[in-house]
Amino acid sequence: MIRWTDFSVELDGRALLQSVSLTVDAGQTTAIVGESGSGKTLLCMAALDMLPKGSVISGSVNHLARGPGVAMVFQEPMTSLDPTMRCGRQVEEVILRHGGQRGRKSRKAAFDRVLALFEEVKLVDVERIARAYPHEISGGQKQRVLIAMALACDPKVLLADEPTTALDSTVRHEIMRLIARISKERGLATVLVSHDLSVVREAADIVAVMRAGELVECGAMEQVLAQPSHPYTAALLASQVPRSGRPYPLSTVGAVVDQSAQIELVAPVAKAPVVLAIEDATLTYPGATEPTLNGVTLELKRGESLGLVGESGCGKSTLARVVLGLRGLDRGSLRLDGRAGLVFQDPFASLNPRMSVGRAVAEVMEVRGMGRAEAWGQACDLLEEVGLETGAAERLPGAFSGGQRQRVVIARALAAQPDVLVCDEAVAALDVSVQAQVLNLLNDLKTRRGLSLLFISHDLGAVRYMCDRIAVMDQGHIVEVAQADALCANPQHSITIRLISAAGLGVV
């Protein structure tokens, strides 16, 4: 069990957590939801004694962890694992450090324990995984290694901070089932931090809703998500993409839209010209035995939104790199009528933290030959066009929220005056309300600028809402292409059926 009692955190005179009282019992999974900056992760950091330096604390946490009683599974497995160490050695190090023993016998016992943990988290070929470096295994396998590491010292409390954000729908489903099974079998008190309400529905017993450092609602998952008692919870739920139809604009926490004022997004006319044509695209990376792209044929019309989905490693991002001119083809052709721009998945990692956002946007135009003063003026205009306030250009990326940084990245993509906007997991790391804001922005820009979108995402719900058609990839092939609602209602290929089932979509 873990309990926060009247727990508050203040830093530099600003209240970050305000009188939070929450109990998670053994064998129970409590999901903490809320917008970015609401205090979800900070509450977990308090349980690990990892609050920011200078924090002023009042109240208590009964597992203020000094030892292995509380363990955490972090959001991004690739950055959480040491790329220079084999996976088994990293878990073994945790066992030895907390076991306080050294020597050949201790190392052998620790390694045997690693293999047992890898089997518990349902890794296949555990000795191979133990010898592998993180870059040699898939995203789902890396997340399982992190879960094994968290379990290595037999914790009583498991904190999982956005553990499925970077995973496709099938792997996400597997990981959440794994966490739920282990929590029940071990009797863990599990805290799940997530912005993905479909994950919450799948895994949580209790839902705690946070806003601006306060706990505003807490109760049984079915009750909170079906009949919320707090207006903020209701606004969060209203921000989700709908399971059917394509109403525009979507509601957000700050602006709940009157449904009678919404319009329905429609596909471009059948006679619209093709802006991107890919034919028989084939590409094999050096050293690989199988092609990453294998005879891909696809087209995108002007003004159309085309979704590209598939499990991790199927070739989606490689195809995006080909469209952007970052990779050549071994065989086949690509015709692009105009330019392509890219909206990155992680806006913070894609921006220089020491460069103002205005300069980040302006340099795109300067590279293309525009004068410095003119480029700066147009950068300011672009930042305002994507919804940032006047004067934002002077500030550094760290001064913005995640949603605001994504707007900066969109403005930078627009600086190249693209005809096709490639969105590669552009909303994966955003909470539901901010995701709705960004989707509204993309639809607005698409209409105003006549853009075509290549929308790559693990989030099948967002893809179904945003896109006129969806193309499904598997092992380098396009295996199915259809109108979005038709594909979700009547998938033909086995991989499509698996993706849609894991995402909880289909006929509604």
Structural class based on helices, strands and sheet pairing? alpha/beta
Low-confidence stretches: none
% residues in beta strands: 15-25%
| Fraction in helix | 25-40%
Number of spatially distinct domains: 4
Q: Kindly report how far apart the N and C termini lie.
A: 38 Å
Radius of gyration: 24 Å
- Give the name of the CATH architecture of the largest domain: 3-Layer(aba) Sandwich
**Can you tell me the CATH topology of the largest domain?**
Rossmann fold
Summarize the structure in words.
The chain has helices spanning 40-47, 77-80, 87-99, 104-120, 126-131, 139-151, 169-186, 197-203, 221-226, 231-238, 316-323, 347-350, 357-367, 372-385, 402-414, 432-449, 460-466, 484-489, 494-503, and strands at 2-11, 14-24, 29-33, 56-61, 70-73, 157-161, 189-193, 206-211, 214-220, 247-248, 263-264, 274-283, 293-301, 305-309, 331-336, 340-343, 420-424, 452-456, 469-474, 477-483. It is 38% helix and 24% strand. The chain is built from 19 helices and 20 strands. The model has no long low-confidence stretch (mean pLDDT 92). β17, α16 and β18 form a beta-alpha-beta unit. With 508 residues, it is α/β, with parallel strands linked by helices. It folds into 4 domains: 1-69 and 155-227, 3-Layer(aba) Sandwich (Rossmann fold); 81-148, no CATH class; 267-339 and 418-508, 3-Layer(aba) Sandwich (Rossmann fold), CATH 3.40.50; 351-416, no CATH class. Strands 5-6-7-3-8-9 form a 6-stranded mixed β-sheet, with helices on both faces.
